[in-house]
Design a protein that fits this description.
two-stranded antiparallel sheet; about 400 residues
């Protein structure tokens, strides 16, 4: 207790120096929280895009379909499965899709694409396709053979609304079939890679070319809550066996890996910030020890043990850290909360670059409340490690030499 009282009084003997250390700790902690909040907001945004605009929570396919995307592998009794899914209270929406891998050709060139046969009214809500339309009006019920293409693909193939193109692919009998389509709209999502390789046509028109009647290759499921993915996945697998039912983490493992990788990187950046902070603490505490050379020598001459002097220096550093940490946390919470409502526009980093990784340019950072304990542990550990050198310096002082100084 005496050591804590002495340490508390010592840190206020030079208020300016102590305030500088507290400010440094608060600034370092704020920087760490800002990085974690930004990464959390980016990852949350990316996951929402994957679920709400690309994949859904769950998808059902024939087990062999994804091996080569052969159109012959249709989902049997799709309507019955849809009725079972819609009976589940956790299910928000279901979308049926026909898929084909093929070639998009124009007079200027050709490129490989995935052709998605959709029911427009269903897909507009499921994947927010209508909100993504940047040019044109979308599918017109009075017109046939219309196609929606992504902005990246339109720029690459020099297409615009009203342009003609030909889609070529193989049907269920491995015959090459082709259809002429006219661009009804150009859509732009936050994922430029997805925009470049996907086109959307009416399901009935694609099915007619494939020769599959009313068959479908994919059933996509959107749930009310993300937390229901695991139990609903288990239930659907039991109901639809031997069909392959996968969660969004299994369908998009790169997104799941990205989330885990960014979590690790955020801690690495946090540690780098703390290392820089540690040098500042070492420098300031060494100055404090040098200024108190006679005082420390007097304490040693009066019989104060080396361990007590060592603990005194460590306690002063811990108190400075504990005084600066709440300020850093408060500033971090206030700034991240402000931008969580207002949003942080990262368009300056390059819209194309952000889009190539599937990120939106507008990010809403989120205060990493669940990580504050681990962040505090890192900060306190950094302060303790940084105080060891000044404490050892104090221990090595000889009382006689210190008193002479």
């Amino acid at each position: 207790m005496i050591i804590w009282l002495m340490a508390w009084r010592n840190i206020w003997r030079n208020k300016m120096r102590s305030l500088v250390i507290m400010f440094s700790i608060a600034l370092g902690l704020f920087a760490g929280i800002a990085v974690l909040a930004l990464y959390k907001g980016m990852m949350k945004s990316r996951i929402r895009t994957v679920i709400d605009e690309e994949i859904g929570h769950l998808q059902i396919h024939q087990p062999q379909f994804k091996d080569d995307y052969e159109p012959v592998f249709l989902i049997p009794d799709a309507e019955k499965i849809v009725r079972q899914l819609q009976a589940l209270p956790q299910v928000k929406q279901v979308a049926l899709r026909s898929l084909a891998q093929g070639m998009l050709s124009t007079p200027t060139g050709s490129t490989g694409v995935q052709i998605n046969g959709i029911v427009p009214e269903e897909e507009y809500d499921f994947s927010s396709l209508r909100q993504k339309i940047a040019e044109g009006e979308g599918f017109n019920p009075e017109k046939r053979n219309q196609v929606l293409i992504g902005r990246k693909l339109a720029d690459k193939m020099k297409l615009k609304t009203g342009s003609k193109l030909v889609l070529t692919f193989t049907d269920t009998a491995n015959n090459i079939v082709a259809g002429a389509f006219r661009v009804a709209a150009v859509f732009q999502s936050t994922n430029t890679a997805l925009d470049e390789r996907n086109v959307y046509v009416r399901q009935s028109e694609l099915n007619a070319l494939l020769g599959i009647g009313e068959g479908v290759h994919e059933i996509a499921v959107l749930l009310h809550r993300d937390e229901d993915v695991a139990p609903v996945l288990t239930q659907i697998r039991q109901q639809t066996a031997p069909l392959r039912c996968e969660s969004w983490q299994e369908i998009s493992p790169e997104t799941n890996l990205m989330v885990k990788t960014v979590d690790d990187y955020s801690y690495i950046i946090m540690i780098i910030i703390m290392v820089a902070l540690a040098f500042g603490i070492v420098n300031t505490m060494l100055m404090a020890i040098m200024e108190r050379t006679r005082e420390i020598g007097m304490m040693a001459a009066l019989g104060t043990g080396r361990l007590r002097i060592f603990l005194l220096v460590l306690t002063e550093t811990v108190l400075l850290t504990l005084a600066g940490a709440p300020v850093g946390i408060a500033i971090g919470w206030a700034v991240s909360t402000y931008y969580s409502y207002k949003g942080l526009n990262l368009a300056g980093m390059g819209e194309d670059m952000m889009g190539s990784f599937g990120f939106r340019t507008m990010v809403y950072p989120e205060f990493p409340g669940e990580r504050i304990v681990s962040v505090l542990i890192i900060v306190v550990a950094t302060a303790l490690i940084a105080s060891i050198l000044p404490a050892v310096k104090a221990l090595r002082m000889k009382p006689i030499d210190a008193l002479r100084n």
